[in-house]
Design brief:
Layout: H1 2-21, E1 55-59, E2 62-64, E3 67-70, E4 74-80, E5 89-90, E6 105-110, E7 114-119, E8 127-132
Parallel strand pairs: 1-4, 3-8
Antiparallel strand pairs: 1-2, 4-6, 5-7, 7-8
Length: 133
């Protein structure tokens, strides 16, 4: 009699365990994400520089680019990437940076149209032109 009771209790327990371990139902899935898909990264060397067209690099004892055309109201920024110091000095005296060490910048806003020639007061062979329309 005792075995019959144990069998009666064991049968539902075995059925419950079998149902849990051998379940053929699919596991619930998470709802689709509303996040945008990942964007492919662009190598830094391929990305355009910030404010492209409004910057001049001072490098290898030259202004690069040496000639730049911008719209009225544009601010142009020069960055000294040389180990030597340089200046950005307008030929007509309308602007001058003072001495720029390595990594230093100088910015000039061009409020009127015209052609503005400039040079490095330390290295006279370094020249450039900003044309403003």
């Amino acid at each position: 009699m005792r075995h019959a009771r144990l069998a009666a209790l064991a049968l539902p327990l075995m059925l419950a365990l079998a149902a849990c371990s051998g379940s053929a139902t699919a596991a619930p899935t998470a709802p689709p994400s509303s996040a945008p898909p990942p964007v492919a990264s662009v190598p830094a060397s391929a990305a355009p520089p910030a404010a492209a067209g409004n910057t001049v690099s001072i490098s290898s004892f030259s202004f690069q680019p040496a000639e730049l055309t911008v719209a009225v109201g544009t601010t142009v920024t020069w960055t000294n990437n040389d180990s030597a110091s340089h200046t950005v000095t307008a030929d007509d005296g309308s602007f001058k940076s003072g001495t720029l060490g390595n990594g230093a910048t100088f910015s000039q806003t061009f409020a009127t149209p015209g052609t503005f020639a400039y040079h490095c007061a330390i290295h006279s062979s370094m020249t450039g032109t900003i044309t403003v329309h």
